[in-house]
Every structure is written in structure tokens, then in C-alpha cells.
Structure prediction request, 373 residues.
Amino acid sequence: MSDLRIDRVETVLLDVPLRRAHRFARTEMDAQPVLLVFLRTAGGITGVGEGVVPGGPWWGGESVETMQLVIERHMAPIVTGRNVDDMAGILGDITDVVAGNLFAKAAVEVALHDAQARCLDVPVHTLLGGTVRESVPVTWALGTEPAPVVLEEALGKLDAGTHHSFKLKMGAQDPAADVKRVTAIAEKLAGTAGVRVDINGRWDRLTSLTHLPALAEAGVELVEQPVPGDQIETLAEINQTLPIPVMADESLRSPRDALRLSRLGATDVYSLKSTKSGGLRPTQNIAAIAAAADIPCHAGTSIESPVGTAASLHAACAAPAVTWGSELFGPLLMQEEILTTPLHYENGELHLPDGPGLGIDLDPDALRAFARS
Prediction:
């Protein structure tokens, strides 16, 4: 085995252009900022992790710029000189110095997994206990555009056979108008594709109880995070009222959140994101709680590049509870490729790559092209 000691920690900021603008409830973007973290060992092995948030700090309070600062100033001194297989010790020491900053921690934690797995010449999912599946279905996310625009994109994906379910963003306009827009889309896609909605916590209790039943009647199959993340009791009330599943995202960041959601019966589906939870191991712990509570999981997205997407894919394929598919479409939304070999999407599914670590190789020319000066 090569020398496992980490002798360098490096970060790079990228801005990767998107194929189209992606609109959330509170913001939109036409390029995705990405922070890459490289851990280089004395034995010549390099592990990579990704720090990324969906559309900036409005979602999780972090940005790629804050992640870079916290990692370089506070985490790198703890990591440097340690062995990559001292993962629990390193992460524990980081938590003693940095409270919160889960997106930044996730980037370092994934890089540790990639480096250790490459040192052992095994895929990352081996470190997570092995696989229960080799691929996951991928739902395509659509923005807050008018119904004709959304329908054109959705029907194009259906005709191409690349996606069979769609998630619509809501919360950017008047609730009644928003419901009318989504109802029109759901009715057009009825019988041909699954339709889900994500409100990103933009509605309150009364708005949710008033308008969500109409979405259920229109054939929407799942509602994601209608109320703010800290309103778990309200989420429970909504979940017990609606005849369709409610999925928790902003309400679910830690294993402790997973336990509380389960006890309150606040959600029918957990949205797993290694980015928001601090890495692959906390995400595994959340999935284990979900399995014990008989709550299915969905592999969500922060619009990761292929690096973060590969990490989430390894976690999803190693977790038995991930039976509600995924939304790991980030690389397909990006205009340019940053890997020498793209991730393998086929027939509406994303397939595990071969090879050690995350199973990916970055394209140096692409990194130079998109790196911030």
C-alpha cells in the first residue's frame, strides 16, 4: 500500500455553464459554481470532493466562496499530515473546530473517501458496505417557467426516452397561479410520466393546506418541502392530511433530524443529499434510520457536477432504503463536460462507473477552462 499521509490540500473554484437557466423559488442561475477539494497523499494518490449548493447561499447558508475559506483556513491544517484512513479521527477533529458548515465538510469527507478507496484500489461504495443496486432512476427537474415552456422540455425528454418522471419547482409566484400552472402540466403528462413538485419551503401552513389538495387531485404524485425546514410539526400536519407522499428536504440534514421526522410521522419520503448532511457517512446514517422506520429514500441533488454526482451515486447504490429513485441530473444540465469519460446515463437511469475511488477522472483542460482566475 502506498504512503497514506496527506501532504497537500488544494481547492479550485469553477463556474460551469448550464444548458439553460435553472430557476428555483428564490433565485436562478445560468452557471453552477463548484468548489473542488483535492487531497494529495505522499504516495502519489489524489482524492477529490466537491462543495456545491443549489443556486447560492439562500438554500443552506453556504456558498463556494465560504466553503473555500473555511476549508483552507480551518480544515486543511487539521487534515494535512494525517493518514487518509484516519477518517473518523479527522472528521471528529474538524467538528471540534468548525460547527456547522456541512457543505464544506462534505467536500472534504468525500475527498477522504475517494483517496482512501484509491489507495486500496476499490470503489468508494466498498467503503460504504457494497452495493444493493448498480444504477438509480433519474427524475428530471424543471424550473418555474410557464406551462408551455415546461411541457415542451418534458415532452422532449419523454420522446428521447431519457427521463420518465419530472419534478417541477414551485413557490416563485402567487400560489393559486402556481397551482393552475402545475395542474395544466400534470394533466398533459397524466398516464405518460410521473409529476412531482418542490416548493422549497416557500409556503406557510394555511397556504399549503389550502392549495396542496388540488395538486393531489391533478395527479401530482409527491410534494417536496412545502413549508420552511424548521416547521416540522406543520410538515407532519400536512403529511397526515394529504393523500399523496410528502418528502422532507430542508427539514432533513442530520441523523437527529431523521429520527425526529420519523417520530412525528412528518414525512413519507426522505431526500438524501451528502452535500447538506456533511458527507457520505452521515447520509448513510440517515438512510439507516429511514430503513428502520420503513421510510423510503430519494437521492436528491444540489446540482452537483459529475464529481458530487458520482459521490451521491455511490451512496445511493449502497443504501437499501433508496427506493424512490434519484434526481442526480446535474451533469446533464451542464453545458460542458469536466470528466475524461462522462457518467453513464441510459434509459432514464444513472449507472455506477467502474474503477477505484469515485470511478471518475477529471479533464485537466476543462478544469483550466472553467477555473476562476
Observations:
- The chain has two domains: 5-121, 127-351.
